[in-house]
Amino acid sequence: MFKRIFLFLIVNSLMVYSMSGQDTIQQIIYNPIGMFHTSFTPETGAPRQGILMPETRGTIEINLPYRGCLKTLDLFEYIIVLFHFSEVERWESTVNPPASTEEHDFGLFSTRSPKRPNPIGLSIVKLEKIKDGILYISGVDAFEGTPVLDIKPYLPSVDCVKSILNEYMEKELGHHDEKFINDSTFFK
To answer: What pLDDT does 44 receive?
Structure first.
């Protein structure tokens, strides 16, 4: 039984790419650098975009081997956190975001849905302070125990592009509605 599970995990962690007519196998492995600690669970739901709810608070506990990487991070007010949607059970190629109009089905890559082939999330959070390898943050939108993959500083000159078309589509996606809490079944 153990051999079958191990083989299943190995086969499912390999990705085949076709480059210039040649198939190559590339294994992609990410190790969490830390973990979110929040009051949100699949049962309670979580804000759809935490930055729109700055009162939501939580922490990110950085694993010991990566704590040296935090040097000078406290010079930034906002950071980008990449994480693994650990509660996602499947992905869908088209999505109707919870607050969009029913007439629109969007291709998955046109949305921020957590139901992705590689369930990687991205959040911009406010960094309140760092103490003993723990980042105290606000604008949180992750569940308790969500694995953190990477952290980067938010840089307005490169991370904030002005686009009227994108602003229009953002409204179509429903990112300006009054209800920011997801139904937890959206992740399943």
So the answer is: 87
What's the pTM? 0.75
How far apart CA 152 and CA 71 sit, in angstroms, is 12
The model's pLDDT over 67-119, given as tens digits with 9 standing for 90+, comes to 999 999 999 999 999 999 988 888 988 887 766 666 778 888 888 788 888 89
The tens digit of pLDDT for each residue in 117-159 reads: 889 999 999 999 999 999 999 999 999 999 999 999 999 988 8
Which residues, 6+ apart, have CB-to-CB distance to 159 below 8 Å?
80, 124
Q: Where in the chain are the domains?
A: 30-156
Q: CA-CA distance, 93 to 99, in Å (whole number)? A: 18
CATH code of 30-156, in short, is 2.40.30.70
AA identity, residue 42: P
Query: 37: Cβ–Cβ under 8 A, 6 or more apart, which residues?
Result: 58, 59, 60, 61, 144, 145
Is residue 159 helix, strand or coil?
helix
Q: Which H or E run includes 171?
A: helix 164-173
The span from the CA of 45 to the CA of 111, in Å, is 18
What are the backbone dihedrals phi and psi of residue 78, each rounded to the nearest 5 degrees, phi first?
-125, 145
